[in-house]
């Protein structure tokens, strides 16, 4: 039995831990052979296969990124995409495919499974933790840890100069990283994409914090947006070509607004790619490893078209289609719970 | 309404985060008053109360330990213990008590609630993660992180000298820290209290690892014990006064046995107290904070005799009595799953 | 004897360690009294003095920032500045002043000492490590450590997507942080303010790195500037009001140029304030502590108008005037030495 | 020109960084060829040579340990040792040898250079920082950082239970790690091998700390010894086969003595091998890299029989013989300076 493995979408600490677990268990317990595809679905499209065995996965557990490379290529948008995919799988003698990725990568796996009978098992990956079918995805805990450590550091510099520090963290559509790191870091305001924010309310929290002789930390998800569209329109640089607010600049924009409205100095730190690189946290290594082991169980049982998922402390399987159907956003009740720490 | 707060048992990163969340929410949302008791139940027995308000909880979120101090005192084993407890509560005008602790501390709370009508809400704390009513307890993730980082470091020194490194981690009755840090750190053998180990089997794994030109890391929980009692008896220093294996020395003992039987150099590192001190991980700060917020919800709803607990991503409540009834040990199926990485 | 203490300029991990050492040694060995001034020279100007004794310095050793606050106020630029300074010192009964700060703060101390007979001892602080009179200043090692850890993380994400990552680090006039973190992090290009860079040469190094199947990391000091002025002029947003390259944006600008010229994806991470906050490294705590102890020695010996400085492993004293006279920049020989790792 | 490279003695973070710098500069700037010898001098004795080029040194900069392996073998104590050494060098066509190691490894290099004309350049390595010819050796800063982080963690657990924590750190003959980590970690007592300690004085410091309502941290170098020999003799287990105090047990022994004499609970943490493994600090990577580059300069200039060394911020060369002649211990003046923080 030969199993293909690929990683797609943005990289995420823990991808290598999944690959290692898959190969270790597959080879040692079941004597499976493995073929790695380079750069996600693009490697399958282009027939770029690499050997994948025990020697290739040695020492990769604590390493961030993915030894297989990644891309966002979607074969359904490529000419003859499906034919090229199935062609490569046949040529390489692939019996089953383990696809590690997010909504897009697994969406392709779901369609290939349903519409073209490709035997796929999915492993969920989203650093934003926004897949509804699983309690957690690996990479998220690492990102939250990095963001929290940065917030810890920013507290002391903010206090020394009594200025506002706005920290922009990842989270385009879901505010999980902002919420968790903001709570863990003792932020005074947390802004998430799930609820448009009112700049005046933010300024009120900021001011109240200063009144208590503390310097405020504002954590804002990159996808958070102000309630009042007009405010944005006044500063055309924050709009993109389509006249939309530039998601990547909300931290910078907000710091300027806070300065303008409160008269207090404000600075921005955009954590950016630092959040997704480097060695995975112990939690993420453990989760990624268990996902990898259970993906092999699914293959062995012939339980295709499924994705492994965490529920409580158990790893379960859910249909791939269902797994990618809806985004898991921060529920308002949870966000409201956090507001006791605002201001 | 005045609420007493105490922390009992071994200290654990996240205790301060609970205290802070309890006070922040209680004061800001409900205008409750708070009284801290020093050193767990001992402070209630002795009437040692300290003021607890917003100023006392500032800046404590990222700090390990507990600002209230801790002890293992059990009032049911003290002369007039219960009378002194209820006397102090009355004297201090305490309407409800939030007890943060493990099996022992919460067991006292359960009896006080059931037998003496004391209005208690429990918050679970065990660095070993061995309370069955909750998926996780705070402090555990921090301990696993510290142990994993140590294992990461030990790999390179083991490889440089091609020697065995035995790492003894916490876990007297449950092997959760050993299992998680061993998996996350890429250990070659993991030994837990739940299954007596065979030294010869350990040596076989060690030898097989050397054959693959790697240096083995053996992670052993402090409570793990060898299968063959006789081996132990030969070395009386590893027995305590009752003739039992000294739990604290299994790492040292095992390293010597490995040296004897395999002829390879073996060294031991006992991580000890480093695992329970210092700043909590982001996960533990988040969990501890949520536990604190929900404990206040329980008080507000008059839902006494309960403990807050994590189930998946939800915080729920379970009866205190039930919560402390059984130890959560590593299931054999989970331990077997990890064995694919042994040797 | 009563000693005033102040911290000026940008905050820096280690300031609190200096304050603690000064107070601990002064009180315990010599029974000195201490008065803290808030926010650097501004607090002296405005007579904002705070008590400073053993209780105030407890637990501050590992904390970043400064418990005294900081500012960039220069009393020589304020109306009646000097009179107000000497007035406050007299009013508070200050016999000597320990000023902890950089070029500006110590420049004021030097003039006050020389021109107005104020008894000053200086402690050097510059996170950029650009004071010529001392081998190292505290804060620098912490900043280099944070930048190096970020570079470590960025390697894996760069490799996964085979893209260029440009990391902008602190260093307005001197490239020490860029040079040290770039060397320690295994960067493929390091750009410093001391030598204008050629964008085509940078692109050649980037391309050569890709040819070796690796993803390049470019570390650029915020004050680094391209050689060819014209390139810059084409994009007016990168110019400030005076037509100069905006120092804070060189990373962003360079990433765009690299994309344009090499056709490779490039991303920027601006580390910003994260570099100057949080707990100091062990080296910085040790250095700051020794500086504090030796500042008290200088006071006790009446050796005013001096600054403590590190030479090798010794703490020595140099005249304040001399200490702030020249900037310590990266010598070209050292920069050339590093180029073996470029490309 | 072909250069042999070996690493000897205990492993140390930064060894790989030296190897990488040596090879990168040698190959790229001078087109040298390299041969690695396995396990220090043992590999030269036994003719175990491995290829060493750019591919072998990729990615090793941040990795602890040594890719070449290490041993404590001394060829002058082996039969025909020198003949076998020179035989291997001739057979492998080695023109010069870069030996990275401590007193023993470099002592061999010195004798081979002086007595047998072997062209050697030394790079100093001692995690204890006890080589007199250089201000610092790589690995030391990493060890101090790890010990300091552990002490930070132990503070909070000590405070929670108001118990003494004794931390045993490396340092057999020199107390540098104890002194630096003790100062950086805010220890209340620091004990070094350079001065025998008085247990009653230690207990007085401990007691004074408790009186100030704090829990004491005692940092003790593994080679520190009590002044009063008799105390030791009462407990035969702390003696080794020669009747000497067992160096590795001083922490455990001291904790028991403190408990006995003060009546306070005391616990020990022995940091052990964790201090020498894992990724090097930024400082150590920088220092190791510079040492490597300068070792190649020495080879190129034919300046053999020398060791590279750090003086202030400069890398210089000193005769190998002189470099290993005397141990650099903590001067009493520096130790006395630290005592202001005791108690």
TrEMBL record, chains A, B, C, D:
- Report the NCBIfam families cross-referenced here: PFK_mixed, PRK03202.1
InterPro entries associated with the record: ATP_PFK (IPR022953), ATP_PFK_prok-type (IPR012003), Phosphofructokinase_CS (IPR015912), Phosphofructokinase_dom (IPR000023), Phosphofructokinase_III (IPR012829), PKF_sf (IPR035966)
Q: What is this protein called?
A: Pyrophosphate--fructose 6-phosphate 1-phosphotransferase
> What GO biological process terms are annotated to this protein in UniProt?
canonical glycolysis; fructose 1,6-bisphosphate metabolic process; fructose 6-phosphate metabolic process
Residue(s) at site: Important for catalytic activity: 125
Q: Which residues form the active site?
A: 128
- Where diphosphate is bound, by residue? 10
Write down the species: Streptomyces mashuensis
């Amino acid at each position: 039995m030969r199993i293909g493995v690929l990683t797609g979408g943005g990289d995420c600490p823990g991808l290598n831990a999944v690959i290692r677990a898959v190969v270790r268990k597959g080879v040692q317990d079941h004597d499976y052979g493995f073929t790695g595809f380079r750069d996600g679905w693009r490697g399958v499209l282009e027939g770029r296969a690499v050997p994948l065995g025990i020697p290739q996965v040695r020492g990769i557990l604590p390493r961030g990124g993915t030894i297989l490379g990644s891309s966002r290529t979607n074969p359904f948008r490529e000419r003859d995409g499906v034919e090229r995919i199935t062609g490569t799988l046949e040529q390489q003698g692939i019996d089953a495919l383990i696809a590690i990725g997010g909504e897009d990568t697994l969406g392709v796996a779901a369609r290939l499974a349903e519409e073209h009978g490709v035997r796929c098992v999915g492993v969920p990956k989203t650093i934003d933790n926004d897949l509804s079918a699983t309690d957690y995805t690996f990479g998220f805990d690492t990102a939250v840890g990095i963001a929290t450590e940065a917030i810890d550091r920013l507290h002391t510099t903010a206090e020394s100069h009594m200025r506002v520090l706005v920290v922009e963290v990842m989270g385009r559509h879901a505010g999980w990283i902002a919420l968790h790191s903001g709570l863990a870091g003792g932020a005074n305001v947390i802004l998430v994409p799930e609820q448009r924010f009112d700049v005046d309310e933010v300024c009120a929290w900021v001011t109240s914090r200063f009144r208590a002789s503390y310097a405020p930390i504002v954590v804002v998800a990159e996808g958070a947006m102000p309630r009042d569209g007009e405010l944005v329109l006044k500063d055309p640089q924050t709009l993109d070509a389509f006249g939309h607010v530039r998601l990547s600049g909300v931290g910078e924009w907000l710091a300027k607004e806070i300065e303008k409205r409160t008269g207090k100095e404000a600075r921005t730190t955009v954590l950016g790619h630092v959040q997704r690189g480097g060695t995975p946290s112990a939690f993420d290594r453990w989760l990624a490893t268990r996902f990898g082991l259970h993906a092999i169980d699914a293959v062995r049982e012939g339980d295709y078209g499924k994705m492994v998922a965490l529920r409580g402390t158990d790893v379960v399987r859910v249909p791939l289609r269902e797994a990618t159907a809806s985004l898991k956003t921060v529920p308002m009740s949870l966000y409201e719970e956090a507001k006791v720490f605002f201001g």
